[in-house]
Amino acid sequence: MKVLIAEDKTGLAEKLMDFLRKKRYVVYLLLLFLPNYLHSQSVTTLISDGDDAFAIGNFYAASVFYQKAWEKDTQDAGTAWKLAEAFLLDNNYVDAEIYHTKVLIKDAGKNFPLVFFRIASAQKYLGKYMEAKKNFSSYYKSHYKDGDYFMKKAEKEIESCNFALRNSNDSLLVQIENCGPVINSVYSELSPFRASDSTFYFSSSKPRFVKQNGKVVDSILVNHAGIYYADIHDSTWKNISQADSVFNNINYHNANVCISPDKKILLFSRCKTDKNEKECALYSRKFINDKWSKAERLNEKVNLSGTSNTQPSVSLDITGGYQLYFASDRVGGFGGFDIWSCTLLPDGKVTNPINLGKSINTPDDEITPFYQENEKTLYFSSTWHNGFGGFDIFRTERKSLYWSEPLNLGHSVNSSYNDLYFTINRYGNAGYFTSNRPGSMHDSLKGLTCCNDIYYFKIIEKEKSAEKNETIYDTSKTASSSVSLTLPSPVTAQGQNVILKEMQKLLPLSLFFHNDEPDPATLSPTTSKNFMELTQNYKLMKDIYKIEYANGLEGEEKNNAVRDIEDFFFYQVENNEKKLNRFLELLLSLLENGRKVEVTLKGYCSPLNSNEYNTLLAKRRISSLINYFKTWNNSALLTYIETRKDKEKMLIIIEESIGELKTTGIVSDDLNDLRNSVYSPSAAKERKIEVRMAEWGEEGD
Is the peptide bond before 113 cis (omega within 30 degrees of 0)? Predict the structure, then answer.
């Protein structure tokens, strides 16, 4: 768990912390007092303070100190390295990539041999799979003889990037929603568990006042993770409360509630708060005489001394007892945290835990197991098996004597970020998971991906007659396997409305082009070029944009210019490319179910040429996108775009070539000023197509 401010040997932080405790303010308000302190300190002191924060796992505070040290001396590759590492461990992947790249430029890998590996790691989190693959390959080529963890991990990540590139489009139609500010906060929320139709447990790292004997004691403020519960009525969260001291021991982090299917046993975990004593243990409570008993620590077979044992999931066992699954870093595993299992026998005894084996456990971490009783399926998260992000969610089925090959849940559930704590209901159609993907709540002082939120997912409802045809497919039995749900037609009216709502969230969708593309200096209103081909070439020009837009700038202005270009390519070009493909998936589903759809494509240009020329250029850009529509997914949309002999067209595409008439007017039209007329984010944002949609209804309406 992350605290929000570092220990400070000067005594300033300690005094302010004591003051804030007395005033009952949230601890991170201390950061308001830091600017003057940071400004007055030497580089050596700032680095030392950053090292102290880093050592206790407070990577955000470390980044604050290292950032100020870097601003005082922008030539020291060592400071840039420390700052980049702090950013990466604090889930600030954009800045991690930027500063690891600075290290590469200044050091060329001489003193920091992991720099290519770290750049690639940040890029993979950002979904930049091609760039990540290139940099993992660079590291592997230089270190393939080492035979150590990083060499093997780089080799695995190359495979994983290939998997992500091949599987970015899958057919699982799922509605995903952030559970909102009633549950989530700017801190991290995790371990969701739906105990019943009306009761929901989760954990949060937000500061809280202690609750004892049913009452809040507002004189005691703790910053440890705590267990909360909520009532759910008509899909609305009500009565959010922190659990009492039977759950929440103020000397520990408390989290990870699970309850057995027969509702007779509850388990949760407690972890020591001292960063130097990384030990977690499992506790149980039994439901006796209509109430839960006191918490009891499980015996030494489970809570092996000197190890962490956490994140329980429990199912019924043929012995009449329970099968317990949990994550542990004990000796005898394959590396990091592994998933283990044991039996809680009816007489209270516990069998020796066994490792679930190398098909599931790997040299990295496998965590957050959840066993779904009806399907005999175990869900878990891993950073080693081929996936899209850091932690991806996988599933494996329990056979009589073994577990099936783990399958990735696919890109509709997993993101390029961390996805974990997956749970699913007994019907297999809805549940919860935790993620730090963009869209999670975050503090304005920190990045978009700093913190975990709880998300709800629902697999779009299908006709009852089709539910029996719902299949999990992938017969390859390879490490690159992914799960996909085939959604047979027809999708119900309710399901179609869910699709429409998701499509509306994606629109209007802006898609961007390099200057005068496609087919520069021509007067044709059409092109043979394909939008996706143009986009891939455009992304390869990112470094040129950074150089040109930062040209002539120094210091922080130059850093900001580079960051502006990074942000544009990531949040606008790359993210919108993914949104386009998702839009087309949903569009195809509607068309397959007889819905007539009208899509409007508006083309815009920057003011570098005459309006007549720009109108033709805008038409070529629209033409390139239509070409992509026609070839997307093995031409799946083509039959709906073209006029059919027996029926009218189902997909109506309206083209509006706006040219430069509706541009912002603030972009330079001076060809001698390429920095502002071509390479600035403002100019880049005007060279676009805008996708809009008006849904007509059922076929024949």
Answer: no
Tokens of 633: 């997914």
Percentage of the chain exceeding pLDDT 90? 55
Which token pair is 616? 């033709």
Is the separation of the CB atoms in 392 and 385 below 8 Å? yes
Q: What is the pLDDT of residue 480?
A: 34
What CATH number does the domain located at 495-698 have? 3.30.1330.60
Q: Compute the distance between CA of residue 516 and CA of residue 514 in angstroms, rounded to an integer.
A: 6
Reported as type and span, the H/E element at residue 394 is strand 392-397
By the 8 A CB rule, do 385 and 405 touch?
no
DSSP 157-219: HHHHHHHHHHSS-----EEEEE--TTT--SS-EEEEEE-SSSEEEEEE-S-EEEEETTEEEEE
Q: How many other β-carbons are positioned within 10 Å of the β-carbon of residue 307?
A: 18
SS3 67: helix
Q: Where are the domains of the chain?
A: 174-217+225-488, 495-698
Beta bridge partners of 482: 408
CB 451 within 8 A of CB 187: yes
Q: Is 0.70 topped by the overall pTM?
A: no
CATH topology of domain 174-217+225-488: Neuraminidase (2.120.10)
Alpha carbon dihedral 252, 255, 260, 261, in 10-degree steps, equals 170
Band of the pLDDT at 595, cuts 50, 70, 90?
A: confident
Alpha-carbon span 271 to 251, nearest angstrom:
9
**What is the spatial distance between Cα 192 and Cα 552, in angstroms, rounded to a whole number?**
51
> Of 364-378, 525-539, 561-575, where does mean pLDDT reach its minimum?
561-575
The rounded distance, in Å, linking the Cα atoms of 201 and 223 is 19
* DSSP-derived secondary structure for 584-626: HHHHHHHHHTTEEEEEEEEEE--SSS-HHHHHHHHHHHHHHHH
Q: Evaluate whether 347 touches 359 at the Cβ level (below 8 Å).
A: no
**Nearest residue to 26 (alpha-carbon basis) of 162, 155, 206, 241:** 206
- Provide the edge-to-edge strand list for the sheet that holds 174-178: 174-178, 453-459, 430-435, 419-424
Q: Measured between alpha carbons, how far is 563 from 558 in angstroms, rounded to an integer?
A: 9
Contact between 307 and 293 under an 8 Å Cβ cutoff? The reply is: no
Is the preceding peptide bond at 438 cis, omega within 30 degrees of 0? Answer: no
The DSSP annotation for 89-102 comes to: HTT-HHHHHHHHHH
Task: Give the pairing of strands 322-328 and 309-316.
Answer: antiparallel
What is the rounded distance in angstroms from the CA atom of residue 164 to the CA atom of residue 193? 29
Q: Which residues does residue 371 pair with via DSSP β-bridges, in sequence order?
A: 378
Torsion on CA atoms 169, 572, 381, 359, rounded to nearest 10: 50
Q: What is the mean pLDDT of residues 211-218?
A: 61
Residue 170 CA to residue 485 CA, distance in Å, equals 8
Q: What one-character-per-residue DSSP string does 654-693 give?
A: EEEEEETTTS-S-S---TT-HHHHTSSHHHHHHSEEEEEE
Residue 396: in which H helix or E strand, if any? strand 392-397
Point out which residues pair with 242 in neighbouring strands: 228
Q: Apex CA 500: angle with CA 497 and CA 505, to 5°?
A: 130
Asked if the model's pLDDT at residue 609 lies above 50, the reply is yes
CA end-to-end span of the chain = 56
> Do residues 651 and 599 make contact, with C-beta atoms less than 8 angstroms apart?
yes
